[in-house]
Design goal:
6-stranded mixed beta sheet; 3 domains; Alpha-Beta Plaits; 4-stranded parallel beta sheet; 416 residues; alpha/beta; 16 helices; Rossmann fold
Length: 416
C-alpha cells in the first residue's frame, strides 16, 4: 500500500466524515507539566475513527458485492462504522461482538440497523464466528484492520493532522491491531519525514510491542482491560510491516494510568473518552513517554459504556490519591463522630461514606471503629487531615478497612 491510497480514501470520505478538531490540553506528568494537542476523533461520526476505514472499504466494493451483505467482528467501534457504512450502500450488516463488549456500543450498533450477534469471550472467538457467518450466508467480511482500504481510511487522520498542526514534532497514536497506527504513520512520514510517530498500547494487550521485540507478529492471550477498543491479540502481517517501517516507538501503559487519563479528560477538558482513546494522554501523564518536542495525542474514540464511566472515574480518583480510606478508633459516646467530621472539614476534606462499627473484633466494649471514605485534593491534604486528627487526640492511617489500635481512643472512653 502507498500514500496514494490514503489520498484516494480522503477523496472518497469527503462529505461523509467530519474533520475533527485539534484541541489544546495541559497534562500533569511526573516532574514536568506538558502541553499537548489532542486530535478529537471521539467527536467523529459514530464517536470513533473507525468509520473512516469502514466507509472506505465499503466504498471500494462493487454493487454486487455490497448487496451480498456485510459481516464483521468488533468490540464496538468497528461495529458502528460497518453498520453505518452498510446503511450508506443499502446493504445489510451482521456484527459479531464478544460478551465483554460494552452495552453502549452494542445498542448503538443495533440503532444503526445492524444485526448483532454476541458470541465468545474474546475478539478471537468473535472473529471465528464472523468467518462462519460469512461462509454460511455469503456475506463480505469487513476486517477491522488487516486490509489496505481500511488502513488507508484510518490514514486520513494523518492527512488532517498535517494541515491542522503543521508544527507538531511527535504524534501518539492508540494501537491494538495497528490499523490506525499504520495508516497515520504512513501518511505522516510521507508528508513530514522527520516527525516522530509513537504507538501506545494497553500493557494488558501489548501484541504490537511484543511483535516489534520479536521481529515478527506475535499474538497475546485475551486479557481484560478498560481499553476494550484495543483489546486485540496483535498486529497482522500487513500492519506489522507498515509499523516496522514507519513507527519510531511503541510504549505500553497500565489500566491505572488509563483510568487517571479518563478522569483528567472529563474533569479538565470536559471530554468523555473511552479507555483506548485515552492511551496517548495516559502515556504522558504516567511518564511512560516524555515528549521531546511539540506533541499531539490522537483520541481515537469516546464510546465509553455509561455504566462503567462512574467506576472508571472513581478508580481514577483512587489512583490519583483523591479518594482515601481512613479508619479511626473512637469512644462510642455522643459527639465522637461529630469531632472526627469537624476535624476533617476544617482541613477541607469531604466525607463520602461512613461506617460506624461497634462490634469490631478485638475492640473493648465502648470503643467503636469509624471507617471513612474521604474525598481530598491529594496525598498532601490527606496527610494534613491525619496530622489534625493526631492533634485532637485521634490517630488516622490509610486502610480499607483498617482498625486502629490507638491508646488515645481507649483513654477517651475510659475518662467518660
Amino acid at each position: 500500500m502507498a500514500f496514494a491510497d490514503v489520498e484516494e480514501a480522503a477523496a472518497a470520505l469527503a462529505g461523509h466524515v467530519r474533520e475533527t478538531p485539534v484541541w489544546p490540553f495541559r497534562v500533569s506528568s511526573p516532574g514536568l507539566d506538558t502541553d499537548l494537542l489532542l486530535k478529537c476523533e471521539h467527536m467523529q461520526v459514530t464517536g470513533s475513527f473507525k468509520i473512516r476505514g469502514a466507509l472506505n472499504f465499503v466504498h471500494n466494493l462493487d454493487d454486487a458485492s455490497a448487496q451480498r451483505g456485510l459481516v464483521a467482528m468488533s468490540a464496538g467501534n468497528h461495529a458502528q462504522g460497518v453498520a453505518l457504512a452498510a446503511r450508506s450502500r443499502g446493504a445489510s450488516a451482521t456484527i459479531v461482538v464478544p460478551a465483554t463488549a460494552p452495552l453502549a456500543k452494542i445498542n448503538a450498533t443495533r440503532a444503526l440497523g445492524a444485526r448483532v450477534v454476541i458470541h465468545g469471550a474474546s475478539l478471537e472467538e468473535a472473529r471465528a464466528e464472523a468467518f462462519a457467518i460469512a461462509d454460511r450466508e455469503g456475506r463480505i467480511f469487513v476486517p477491522p484492520f488487516d486490509d489496505d482500504a481500511v488502513i488507508a481510511g484510518q490514514g486520513t487522520v494523518g492527512l488532517e493532522l498535517v494541515r491542522q498542526a503543521p508544527d507538531v514534532n511527535e504524534v501518539l497514536v492508540p494501537a491494538g491491531g495497528g490499523g490506525l497506527l499504520a495508516g497515520v504513520a504512513l501518511a505522516l512520514k510521507h508528508l513530514r519525514p522527520g516527525i516522530r510517530v509513537i504507538g501506545v498500547q494497553s500493557a494488558a494487550m501489548d501484541g504490537i510491542a511484543r511483535s516489534l521485540a520479536a521481529g515478527k507478529p506475535v499474538a497475546v492471550g485475551a486479557t481484560r482491560t478498560i481499553a476494550d477498543g484495543v483489546a486485540v491479540s496483535g498486529p497482522s502481517e500487513r500492519t506489522f510491516a507498515l509499523i516496522q517501517r514507519y513507527v519510531d516507538e511503541v510504549v505500553t501503559v497500565p489500566d491505572e494510568a488509563i483510568a487517571q487519563a479518563i478522569l483528567a479528560l472529563v474533569e479538565r477538558a470536559k471530554f468523555v473518552v473511552e479507555g483506548a482513546g485515552a492511551l496517548g494522554i495516559a502515556a504522558v501523564m504516567s511518564g511512560r513517554y516524555r515528549p521531546k518536542g511539540k506533541a499531539l495525542a490522537v483520541i481515537s474514540g469516546g464510546n465509553i459504556d455509561i455504566n462503567l464511566l462512574g467506576s472508571m472515574v472513581r478508580r481514577g480518583l483512587v489512583e490519583a490519591g483523591r479518594y482515601q480510606h481512613l479508619a479511626v478508633e473512637v469512644s462510642d459516646t455522643p459527639g465522637e463522630l461529630a469531632l472526627v467530621s469537624s476535624v476533617i472539614a476544617e482541613v477541607g476534606g469531604n466525607i463520602l461514606e461512613v461506617d460506624h462499627n461497634r462490634e469490631a473484633p478485638g475492640m473493648p466494649v465502648g470503643v467503636a471503629v469509624l471507617e471513612l471514605l474521604l474525598e481530598v485534593n491529594g496525598a498532601e491534604q490527606f496527610s494534613d487531615i491525619l496530622e489534625a486528627l493526631r492533634e485532637r487526640g485521634l490517630r488516622g492511617v490509610p486502610g480499607s478497612p483498617a482498625r486502629l489500635a490507638t491508646e488515645s481512643a481507649r483513654r477517651r472512653h475510659e475518662s467518660r
